[in-house]
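task queued by scheduler; priority normal; single chain, no ligands, no partner chains; default sampling; output format set to structure tokens
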Amino acid sequence: MRPPSARRALKRLSLRGRLVAICLLLVVAALLASNALLVTLLQRQLVDQLDERLRSAATAAARLSDLTDLTDLTDLARIPGDTGPRARDVVEGELTGDVHVVYLDAEGRVRRTPRPAATGAPRLPKLDRAAVEARDERPFEATAVGGGENWRVIAVPVGQAGTPAGGSIVVAGSLDQVGTTIRGLGVRMLVIDSLVLALLGVIGWFAVRAGLRPLRRIETTAAAIAGGDLSRRVSRPASPRTELGRLSDALNGMLDRIEEGDAARAATNTRMRTFLADAGHELRTPLSGIKGFTELYRMGGMPERTDVDAAMSRIEGEAARLVRIVEDLLLLARLDEEAAANLRLPLHLTPMDLRTLAADALHDLRALAPDRTVVLTGPGGGPPGGAPVLGDEARLRQVTSNLVGNALAHTPPGTPVRIGVGTQGGLAVLELSDEGPGLTAEQAAHVFDRFYRVDHARGRTRDGGVGLGLSIVHSLVSAHHGRMEVDTAPGEGATFRMVLPLHPDIPATGS
């Protein structure tokens, strides 16, 4: 486990420093493991080579000693006609480094030492004839007399067992050269590894710095966004399939949604402030009238019965206006509650024909605005037709009433109005079209938004609402699985169209 101080130091490093440190630690671990494996394999190979040379030397020495029953291997030089080298020469030709050769009798006692070691000697175990034959010429390791490097030893039997010449040849080679080679290699590896680590550290530092440059750009962009600049975006890398590419896309998408949400909240807040101001004004106007008439009555300003009746009539009208505003607010609150709970407004659905609503709207318009020309047609013109639907008549009547009030409030007096009813494209349609000033594309896009009011270019009159009527219309029609449409352009009037599913059990007549 890493010590706590090392963990704290690693946490204080930057991401670049951590990456470089982790990479260097991995390289160090890899170098240590590879160097250890290399040293182990090299040491084994050197020992195997030494064993092979010792085995060859022991075999040659044993072959020479088998020529005659000699008490000294150096007497081989006095054999007539013998052209082979002495045992000492054979051993020195087969080996390099310090070598120790002894001749043992059958009981394992040293009879002669043809080639004594120059530096010390191995500490040999008991090597009688039986022990030598049991080892079967396998090399073994022996410690040095007086300390120092160990020795590799091979014992080979010579002569016949049970005869005076039946002993063994022991050839030992010092591991001093093997140790010296391994230590020298270790020092060289240490120096080379240090240089490699230093070079890799420098290269890795700059490579990681270049690789983290996109993250620094993201950091700079995030700091600018935290400072309030929501228009900033993270630049995408060359490949969007990389981690940085996906991160950039995710951040940009999140920023787009945040910016859109902020814009929507700002627009909602603006409409809410406008709505509150308009609603306050609309509520204050009838309340002021009611308060004025009651104060006038209290101060004795209405001595005649006719004056009292006129004041009460005005108070009743203002009170009715207050009731309409409050009912609209309550209906919107209820629609909001149903939408938040993912529920639909409870409706009393019955089979009905939209021609009934169209006829009532025609009578209302003629009664409220006798100066206007009002005609009843089919959708877009032509004769009116049947439009059977399954709906809540009271709610749909509220829709047509709001459409009629909208047309009267936002068009100049005397403006012609057309009511169209029938079927179109397999759907029931009821539309109300005026020839007023019309709406711009931006106004038409928000005309069904709650708390939205078209500017005064639409000619808001004294009876204009507070921006709730069309939003209520849209919500009620949506509750009937229908939709509201508006076709308009500046100077070309406006057509508000209610589209509902046809009732399958009532045959439609007309166009």
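post-processing summary
- The first helix runs from residue 4 to 12.
- Residues 372 and 412 are 10 Å apart (CA to CA).
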